Amino acid sequence: MSQVQRRAVWFVVFCVSMAVGAAGCVSKGKYTKLEKDRDQLDDQVTTLQSEKDDLSLGLAAAVAENVAMADTYSELVGELQTEVAAGQVEVMQMRDGIRLNVSQDLLFGSGGTTLGEKGRDLIARVAAQIKDEGAVISVEGNTDNVPVGPELRKLYPTNWELAGARAAEVVRLLADNGVDPASMRAVSRGPFDPIASNDTAEGRAENRRTEIVLRPATE
């Protein structure tokens, strides 16, 4: 509650009190009503002050979360600078968190769901930077629009299943490297969230990706 609002409330109380004094003797019922009105105003003052304190605490927490996310973003960019420079990883700072876009070819072999050596190393390094962040983490698998090959179709009938298996593999390795499993989820977007055209080999390569999204945990 602002100083101006507080003064306005007490001014009303003062005016009520002055009115009582000016009127001299008033009926008991009217006096009781005036006391009740004063008590209600006091309650409003208390409620507004409590709401102000809650808002101040919420703002302070939001500022702290944003500072922590900014620090994590800088640490990730520094740790992954080689991959970022090579165009294999993109680290984006969003209004409400951080998004890592990792090329599928860096993590998995063609059509595979097992992380290669470079992929395992990368995920371990990412885990070291985010495991103490306390964020909600979504690992999102994406593919191009090329149907799953016949050798994998029995295990993964469509790109939905393939993207989901890859996301789950990344989640498992993050957990193995100290990230809280309860803070993570594996999501499959299949071929339905492209960031480039699937009409070219270059565009399909961009669409084959795993995204690691961090957002502040909310109570």
Tell me briefly what this model is.
This protein has 219 residues and is α+β, with helices and mostly antiparallel strands. It has 7 helices and 5 strands; from the N terminus they run αααββααβαβαβ. The longest helix is centred in the N-terminal third of the chain and has 52 residues, at 28-79.
Descriptive account of the structure:
It is a single chain. By secondary structure, the chain is α+β, with helices and mostly antiparallel strands. Strands 1-2-5-3-4 form a 5-stranded mixed sheet. The protein is elongated. It has helices at 3-23, 28-79, 81-85, 104-107, 117-130, 159-176, 201-207; strands at 89-94, 97-103, 135-142, 184-190, 209-216. It contains 7 helices and 5 strands. The two termini are 25 Å apart. The model is unreliable at 56-64 (pLDDT under 50).
